[in-house]
Amino acid sequence: MFHCLPAPGHATCFSSRPSLNGSSSSTLQFLSVLHSKQRICMLHCFTFLLTCAQIVASDLSCQSMHSFTTTLRKACRHSFTFVLRLSPSHSPRCAPGLHRQMTKAATVKRELPASKAAMVKREVPASKGKTEQAFQLVVASREKEVQKLLIIDVEAEAKRAARRRYETNRKNKHRTRLDATQVAALQAKLAELEAEKLQLYSQIDVLSTELVEANGRLAEADRRVAAADRRVAEVESYVPKTPPRQSRKR
Q1: 149, 75 in Cβ contact below 8 A?
Q2: Pair (43, 151) in one structural domain
Q3: What CA dihedral angle connects 16, 17, 19 and 20, to 10 degrees?
Q4: Considering its fold, how many domains does the chain have in total?
Q5: CB 3.0-4.6 Å disulfide test: which of 18, 23, 84, 157 passes with 106?
């Protein structure tokens, strides 16, 4: 059985694997389905493809391989590089420039040094007559190589990041060093701003009180207008309506 190594954000990968006797299209389709359902991590996608390089290259077109590697490249979040080794039999069938696009699509973020890339690109025989035990041994050895490359790359990146942080902090510390006079001036300015803030808060309280009083006066005026309208309507109800004037007959 082929299981994913424990890593943050990676679910368990293979509970079963496709038969090596199947076609390359079915193998890649199986990997695509597993990856889309988050059942397999990117590391084992590439490891499986590298292990089955001969089968994949035997009967798969360049266009299918290009689309699949592009999908893996977009989904990959690792900082290291895997280069899929393609069979020379693809080249005559490739359209102009497609083989370069496939090689570029299989490169994730940045290239490894030549020694490391040679370890990853080394071809593993994957004939259809291999036993299950031999297949697991090959995959296990390839996983160890990949893990070594990952650890080396992550450690180097961590050292570079620590060095950048140290340089940045050193420059900022030298740039923002203040003497006692400047510190005193800044403290005085801060106290002045605090006093101004308190004054503004008191003005806001006064304006809020005036607003409440104005709303009360406005409501009282609305009530008086409504009462006046009722009185006018009552008076108009007592006034008799005059009949329309009739024209005189000549």
Answers
A1: no
A2: yes
A3: -150
A4: 2
A5: 84
**Closest alpha carbon to 146 in 68, 83, 70, 52:** 83
| pLDDT, position 246 | 65
Write the CA distances from 23 to 28, 43, 52, 135, 194, integer angstroms. 9, 22, 11, 17, 75
79 falls within a domain: yes
Structure tokens at 25: 């299209």
Higher-confidence residue of 234 and 177: namely 234
Which tens digits make up the pLDDT trace of 20-75?
444 555 555 665 655 555 545 555 555 555 455 444 444 445 556 556 555 555 54
Q: Quick one: DSSP state of residue 90?
A: G
Query: Which 8-state DSSP code applies to residue 79?
Result: S
Distance, CA of 171 to CA of 158 (rounded, Å): 20
Same domain for 226 and 138: no
Q: Could you tell me how many residues make up the chain?
A: 250
Helix (H, G, I), strand (E, B) or coil at 80: coil
Token pair 């990117």 is at which residue?
Answer: 42
Asked whether residue 241 is domain-assigned, the answer is no
Q: Is pLDDT at 213 greater than 80 in this prediction?
A: yes
DSSP code of residue 37: T
- 57 close to 90: Cβ distance less than 8 angstroms: yes
Do the Cβ atoms of 53 and 35 come closer than 8 Å? no
Does residue 193 register a pLDDT over 80? yes
CA distance 149 to 136: 20
156-170, 208-222, 226-240, range with greatest mean pLDDT? 208-222
- Write out the two tokens for 170: 């050193």
pTM exceeds cut of 0.85: no
Residue 244 in this model has a pLDDT that exceeds 70: no
Residues 161 and 214 in one domain: no
